[in-house]
Design brief:
This protein has a five-stranded mixed beta sheet with strand order 13-12-15-17-16, sandwiched between helices. Strands 4-7-5-8 form a four-stranded mixed beta sheet, sandwiched between helices. It is built from 30 helices and 18 strands. About 3% of the residues have low confidence. α13 packs across α14. 54% of the residues lie in helices and 10% in strands. It folds into three domains: 232 residues, Spore Coat Polysaccharide Biosynthesis Protein SpsA, Chain A (Alpha-Beta Complex), CATH 3.90.550.10; 415 residues, no CATH class; 105 residues. The protein has 831 residues and is an alpha/beta fold.
Length: 831
Amino acid sequence: MPVVNGAPFISESLAELGAYLRAHHPGAEIVVVDDGSADGTAGRIDEAASSCPVPVVVRRHRCNRGKGAAVRTGMQAARGRFRVFLDADLAYPAAEIGPVVERLRAGAEVVIASRVHPESRYLIRPSFFRYLYTRHISGRFFNWMVRVLLLPGLSDTQAGLKGFSAAAAEALFAGWLPDGFGFDLAVLARARHAGMAVVEVPVEFRYDREPSTMRFLADTFDMLRDLATVRLRVGHGGAILSGGGGERPAPGVEGGWSAPWQLLLVLAALLAGVEIARTAAAPLLVPLGLWIAALGLWLGHGLAGDRARGVGPTRWFEDWGEAAAVMGIVALAAFFRLASLSEIPTLIHHDTASCALVGKAMLTGASRDPFALEQSWYHFPRLGLLPYAASLKLLGTNVVALRLVSALPGILLVPALYVLVRGWFGRAAATIAALYMACNHVAVHFSRDGIWNIHSLTLGVIGFATLFGGWRRRSGFWLGVSGVTLGLCLYTYTAGRLFFGLGVLAAAAMIWRERPRLSRPAAHFAVALVLTIAPLAASFVRVPGALAVDQARNMNPFSAARRDHVTSQVGSAETLPILAYQVRQTLAGFVNEGDSSSHYMIRRPLIGPMSLALALAGLAFGLARLPDGRFVFLFAWLLAGLLFGSILTINPPSFPRLLAVLPVPIVLASAIAGLAWEKLGRTGPVVRGVVALGLAAIVVVTLVRNVRIYLDFCRSMETTVNEWVVIHELRDVEQASTVYFFTGAYMLADSPAFELFREGRRHVFGITEADLPQRLDEPTAFILAPDYRSVGCSLTQRFPDLERELVERRGVRLLTIYRSWAPGPLEGSAR
């Protein structure tokens, strides 16, 4: 309890405080700091202390040094497990200590009273109303500046009632602090930097006397000066990690890092072994096993370090209700991604089959090096396609094996997004975001399509969640997991580069705040990242020209290779018209335009109108909250994804590329919906019920809309001639040794999908009657698309004994199949 010139009230305050503590906290003590009083306060303190029912410790300053200095002196003299300071005039009654201590007992490190909390109460003398109102307005303006410049998310930093755990108090009140009223800012900013969650509680505020220690105008200027000083000396206290995650941070302040040199030498030896095994063309499992062993050793080191430093196990859920809700959402996501997986959609994209062919080559031993680069329109590492090899090995060459490779990551994406959003915006927003992602038609399709685009998104979200959560808890293990997952992003689809870059920049920003010493969290993240990408870096060293021939850069609409194509679309070769067209088409993908690629081919936007409206509201809210680190990161994610995945790429809007930014509008919409639930729900049960019904209606409408969109797409594909239809019918011609394909320029006989399901057959591609054989020496089948009826007529004339079958769906002819199962030669008739 700091006091200066408090003779009129200090005896009464000590008596009230002592009586409360004896009744509710009998083991407590009171530390009074007399900050150079000149009105007889010292004698009153000694007199009141002698009759106080709990021990009283007195500290005195020879001269008035300021409230910050007095609180620091008291906190350094305190010995309790929990340490609370409050104003000496008991503007916050002694009973208000109770809720603060309760939150500290529950595990909070820092608890502060908030006079503007919706449940706070004011007791005011009418004669002081005008003064208090003026003070309140100026206080809210000052708090707005604090939230913008220093501490986003805290509604009241200057209340004279705050509580700390012993570890937090010892860490936060050591070192530099302002001596004046601005000391609260420095303490809270340092708490944020140390990863401590700052919890606000409602309070009863009693105002029945003129301020005796605060000079209203002069101290306001001093506090503004302190705000600027704290901002410069301590830094921004919001950071990317602000927000309620429900996880308890590790106590204390992280120190420097002492490198485990022996372990690092072992890891270096394992990486050297990886390169030796690759050079010697050892079996695939040898370099892969050495690399996994290196990653496992480092993650195990992080886990052991966490236990040694008292970082407890991760608490995934607050209660059984939350666990049940999340499991229910994951089950819903699994249903959408696994139901009828072998039949829906009736589509096998050539990119999916190409990935599976590389995986199949790994199984046959044709590809021994798991880190080697495969050349397509850009160089990509084989390791990213290892899941295809594993799935084909376990399930055989079939459609389910292909699609599980994307379906399982698509399911995992939902809880990963929940954890990420929960750490930023709390439980309500996380639940809404997970529901959105579980049923979004774009996420569902790319989870069922078998393509690896979803891999980079899932790994990126897991990397972000473990990065921010691990940093908040100062967990070496989870930061190591983040380094591994973000590094693995580089082994996936091109969007993985986006997630890798964003994650590294976010980590660098947080590490910069720990300068000049390399902290333990930074080291765990950095070493894991280096271990993960080291084989990939070595692969690019082995193939020096790989980056030079990367065709990803030729997808730029301003490149010479795409000039004619873009000019035909835009009608101009000028930079500004092309840029305007690219931006317009990109944004249309969120409003009224569908996928321009051959992956989805649907004329519906990524998100619905209600979701878009909520996302725009979240965008406006985030702009108003800048420089809140959560929104800084979300906006960086959105801008980078739109820029490099669509605006600077031909043929927007391409959903396979925009998939990388799909979580951002979902998170923005969920943040504003969660905020509405938390804020409006506090006004009473009726309003809370209305808000709940409104949010439930939005979720149900969104769910139904997305299901309808995807079912409409699936129905449209049922009457489309594509590789799926041909492969589906190939099961009925398994006896054929040779299959002739008259299926058009987009389904050649050497199509990756046909190659994958060849099963020893000889495939021949034909265009005209001249490509028909003159005789049939073995069981043969002919597959004709509807455009090749003239070829069918010639075929039946030449081989009249062929069996003929029509493949129709919904009254639409898709294919005509001719078969000859004769074991001997079949001569063709004259035309």
